[in-house]
Every structure is written in C-alpha cells, then in structure tokens.
Amino acid sequence: AVVSTQSTGLQTMCYPCTIYFDKGWFCPVCLKVFDYDAVDDPMVCCDFCDRWVHTGCDNIDDEHYNMLGESGSLYKCILCRGEKEEVYDKHHKKYKEGNKENQLVESL
Known about the structure:
This protein has a two-stranded antiparallel sheet. It contains three helices and two strands. By secondary structure, the chain is mainly α. 24% of the residues lie in helices and 6% in strands. It is globular, with a radius of gyration of 16 Å. A hairpin with a 6-residue loop joins strand 1 (43-45) and strand 2 (52-54). The N and C termini lie far apart (34 Å).
C-alpha cells in the first residue's frame, strides 16, 4: 500500500493516481487517470482543447483511430463538439486563459 504524508481529506484514489490527476493526466470524459507510457488503452489528443481522450470514451473504432494517425486530420473531442457535458470545477475542467467563466469559477 502507498501511504501519503499529506492529508487530502476524503481521498478516493491512491496516492500515485492523485498525483496524475493533479497534473491533469486524466481523460476528461471518464475522469480516469492515465500514464503517458501505457499503450493498452488507446487515446487521442484533441486538437482544440489539447486533452487526451480514451478512444472508447468517444466511440472511436480502430479504423477511425488509424485514419486519424495517418491522415493528419484534426480531431475534435466529444466535449469540444458539445456532445457531452463537462464537469465544471478546478479538478475536472481545463482552464483556458481569457475565459471569464473559468476565471470566476476558479476564484471561488
């Protein structure tokens, strides 16, 4: 077991997963953390928000996944397309500079 010397209140993840989550290393759709070195669960980087999304979370089949890699076409994730609602808080939302709504939420 991994023991943390820092208290994080109600912690629902192990310490290494908490570190990954705090770094933003999680899929914004399912909120599961990922390791950049893992190859068993394919992910695609959104060209609009610069976040990594599991192919399964955006219903991307193997053919479409391979096509994205070969064609160089832009990928717009399920959140940027507005097909899924995003959680709006400091742990789940990637803040963009200049977005007043995000600055307001961030200041709370």
